[in-house]
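Before a computer can learn anything about folding, someone has to put a protein's shape into writing. The outcome of that step, for a single protein, is printed below:
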Amino acid sequence: MVKTNYLLDTLIKISAYGNGASEAIDVAFERIAEIDKKMNARADDSEVTAVNKEAGSQFVKVSPDTFYVIKRGLYFSELSRGKFDITVGPLINLWGIGTDRARVPEEQEIKNALSLINYKDVLLNEEEKSVMLKRPGMAIDLGGIAKGYAADEVVRILKERGIKNAVADLGGNVYVIGKKPNGEPWKIGIQDPFNIRGDIFAIVEVWGDKTLVTSGVYERFFEEDGKRYHHILDTKTGYPVENGLVSVTIIGDSSIDADALSTTVFSLGVKDGMELIESLPGVDAIFVTANKEVYLTSGVANYNFKITDNSFILKN
């Protein structure tokens, strides 16, 4: 049973097999819609928008869902020393990448936005499940982590309903349960970052409960004066990250963690990104550079990684 839907600003496809698969997928989609409604920073009535509106003035009570995702986001903001920062909202809003008002901002506008970005200025009240941003103009954006949380929730729902074989694809966040109905591992294609979504350059084999999350320059971008500007913004410079990488794929067990790590590691670059991933248990990464060189962390060998487009060169 395969069903698709458009939520979280992306096309979502869930394939599940066995008794009750159709109903399980429907419940999963309801759950994704609920998460989207709470955490979409661009919706007028989301919980994240409510927190942002009260920046600098008061705490806002949020659902356990949103509180958990913000807290996890702060963990990765700390782990990456701010390379991944959930208070990047002012910068995202300024560039408008992925909207019809995308533009290259003025230098002063970028400086102003950067001055509002600091994850340490997010205050949490654990008992009340409430959140406050210290300074007016600050804004949380959970775009780099909410999809991962939704993928984890989809898997939880499918498994609770007895589904043993499934794939959930939340536009770049893939999660597999078990094996294919015929007992073979799932073959998951890795997006070719130089081509449109759906074109692949490599394949990995995964089974059990595994997630693959890719972040890359091909996802959302615009062009101005012949230069391409992608959506992964550097919280130090205020411009799109430029470090020779075009995509990073994380393989792990938790999609919320892999989602945050894909952005973090992309921002860190190959060398520092590799070091971070090798220091974390149960997580691996595939790096692709602008000149089509591919770098793998040590555990990727377990997934039978195979390049299918020989214009890409495996470097390690």
The first helix runs from residue 21 to 39. DSSP finds eight helices and 17 strands in the chain. The chain has a mean pLDDT of 96. The longest strand covers residues 208-216.
